[in-house]
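2.7 Reproducibility. Because tokenized structures are sensitive to small changes in the input, we list the exact sequence used for HTH araC/xylS-type domain-containing protein, including any N-terminal residues retained from the expression construct. No trimming or masking was applied before prediction.
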Amino acid sequence: MCRPGWARARVTAQRLNEFTRMRRVRDRIDREYARPLDVLELARDADLPPRFLTRQFRRAYGASPYDYLLTRRAERASTLRLHGTAS
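Resulting structure tokens (single pass, no recycling of outputs):
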């Protein structure tokens, strides 16, 4: 059964809002990867329950927020190893 137009628009708006929140979390991890971050803090700032944040983040980016953070740190370490430290 098809949903009415307003229901589809509402679902689309909710998904866009969730995607925007996930993008903000990802952007924060990208900016602040060098400092201690945890899922509770990220969830609190996104105003989401931690388990929901983890599930939605994994759906959007293929990794949990913590795994994404570790990957970001490893990428930065690799870059520093290749190009030396920029002090």
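The two ends are 61 Å apart (CA to CA).
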